[in-house]
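for the recovery benchmark. tokens below, seq after
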């Protein structure tokens, strides 16, 4: 009897922990506070989300892998539209699990003019609920308002129209 009770208690604890971790990976919704992070870009400069609070809306776009066709098209679209984002005081940050070395190459080869951040540890990907089973990021964009709240979550369907769609939403904030 005691063994059965112990097993039930252990299973209950495992279920509670499992539910907690499942929730923390997928719990973000529009209107919630965006989780803070402090990540390095390809040059080693740190970017902290909270440093933009009260100043600028922030577009955080997660992408699977630097240098792949879809990710390159998406990044180049943002590069080509960056003037519009800057004129409207909108910050754009790309995040992937790529190393800083991989990001340096990606930035150089595509003349990218905005920060790409390395989440090699995948902690931010997990916080935002975008970590795939293969360790890469899901293609999801979070638009954060000036108060640090999630204004919009977009699952990217078309990489060639992504920048325009994101700009239209972020410029309204």
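predicted aa per position
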């Amino acid at each position: 009897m005691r063994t059965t009770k112990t097993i039930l208690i252990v299973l209950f604890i495992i279920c509670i922990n499992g539910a907690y971790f499942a929730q923390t990976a997928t719990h973000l919704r529009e209107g919630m506070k965006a989780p803070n992070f402090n990540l390095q870009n390809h040059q080693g400069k740190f970017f902290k989300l909270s440093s933009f609070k009260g100043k600028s809306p922030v577009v955080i776009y997660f992408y699977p892998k630097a240098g792949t066709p879809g990710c390159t098209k998406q990044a180049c679209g943002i590069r080509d539209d960056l003037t519009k984002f800057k004129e409207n005081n909108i910050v754009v940050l790309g995040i992937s699990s790529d190393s800083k070395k991989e990001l340096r190459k990606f930035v150089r080869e595509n003349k990218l003019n905005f920060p790409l951040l390395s989440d090699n540890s995948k902690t931010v990907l997990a916080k935002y609920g975008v970590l795939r089973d293969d360790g890469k990021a899901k293609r999801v964009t979070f638009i954060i308002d000036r108060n640090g709240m999630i204004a919009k979550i977009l699952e990217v369907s078309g990489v060639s129209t992504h920048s325009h769609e994101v700009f239209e939403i972020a410029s309204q904030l």
